[in-house]
């Protein structure tokens, strides 16, 4: 993960596809959410995980 952080600090965009929300929170500053094959959000990880409408639409677990 240090290598990915380094690439990001020199201006490279890194795409991580994960279901691990802790990983997302630790290593990203922008998150995309898809539901039913469509992009429903492009926002910060915190906004994604605290917005009730996005949580419901993306079927995210809250506990």
TrEMBL record:
Against InterPro entries, the record matches this protein to: P-loop_NTPase
Protein's UniProt name: ABC transporter ATP-binding protein
């Amino acid at each position: 993960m240090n290598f990915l952080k380094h690439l990001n600090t020199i201006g490279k965009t890194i795409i991580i596809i994960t279901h691990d929300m802790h990983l997302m929170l630790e290593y990203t500053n922008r998150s995309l959410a898809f539901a039913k094959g469509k992009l429903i959000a492009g926002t910060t990880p915190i906004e994604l995980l605290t917005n009730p409408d996005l949580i419901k639409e993306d079927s995210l677990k809250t506990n």
